[in-house]
């Protein structure tokens, strides 16, 4: 069961602003994206506090659980409840017994930030030993699908249209049709929300590709590979670490996907 869903209205606020143009100021109102501390709590124990846009938090909690290896399947998250407090939001989850025992054994305490994807790693040795998931075979991606995904996504970014301050993660069929979209001030948060939405609808991660309105950083590739997403496209550049992880994971990484142009940095055999 899922409780306490938060609406689009909670994801942004209206603030007064002085807009300057041609040397003069005009008083107006502006829609501003919100971000709040979100505590992810498993079986009564707080595991992580992330700064996130307070929307689709059930999807966020499920996606985070899957992309971080806390749960191996959506069915291992038995319940999700969103609780609002004066200083932030708690998402309380009931994690299956064996998985919770594994989580407690790791004894990881995380404090996440908008741009941070490895905050839970306590040392450089832990990062070096972190396994890279291998992705399997998927369908082929026609280059025209990238253009279709871009065009459709522009009209699906509701919060960005209001605020101009959030990233979007889109799940697209191999024909380029946009099937699911999630938004957040943090690109990896948007991806976790999307992963949760895909898993919640019992879709297969092998049946489409990810399109991000951001750069392709390490955490985007790592989280995608962890759940079996084999094709990642982004409108901006990848980082070197993202390229290396994509190469090792067998993941097709596409950057600078804008209009008819794009650059494929790893495993181009899935694109024709």
What does this structure look like?
The protein has 272 residues and is an alpha/beta fold. The chain folds into two domains: 36-129, Ubiquitin-like (UB roll) (Roll), CATH 3.10.20.10; 143-270, Cytidine Deaminase, domain 2 (3-Layer(aba) Sandwich). Helices cover 29% and strands 34% of the residues. The protein contains eight helices and 14 strands. The protein has helices at 57-67, 97-106, 124-129, 143-154, 158-163, 187-200, 218-227, 240-249; strands spanning 2-3, 12-21, 24-33, 36-42, 45-52, 77-85, 88-95, 110-111, 167-173, 178-184, 208-212, 231-234, 252-258, 261-266. The protein has a six-stranded mixed beta sheet with strand order 1-6-7-4-5-8. A six-stranded mixed beta sheet has the order 10-9-11-12-13-14, sandwiched between helices. It has a two-stranded antiparallel sheet with strand order 2-3. Helix 7 links the parallel strand 11 and strand 12 (231-234). Helix 1 (57-67) packs across helix 6 and helix 6 runs parallel beside helix 7.
Could you list some keywords that capture this structure?
272 residues, alpha/beta, Ubiquitin-like (UB roll), Cytidine Deaminase, domain 2, six-stranded mixed beta sheet, 29% helix
Topology:
Elements: E1 2-3, E2 12-21, E3 24-33, E4 36-42, E5 45-52, H1 57-67, E6 77-85, E7 88-95, H2 97-106, E8 110-111, H3 124-129, H4 143-154, H5 158-163, E9 167-173, E10 178-184, H6 187-200, E11 208-212, H7 218-227, E12 231-234, H8 240-249, E13 252-258, E14 261-266
Parallel strand pairs: 1-6, 4-7, 5-8, 11-12, 12-13
Antiparallel strand pairs: 2-3, 4-5, 6-7, 9-10, 9-11, 13-14
Helix pairs in contact: 1-6, 6-7, 7-8
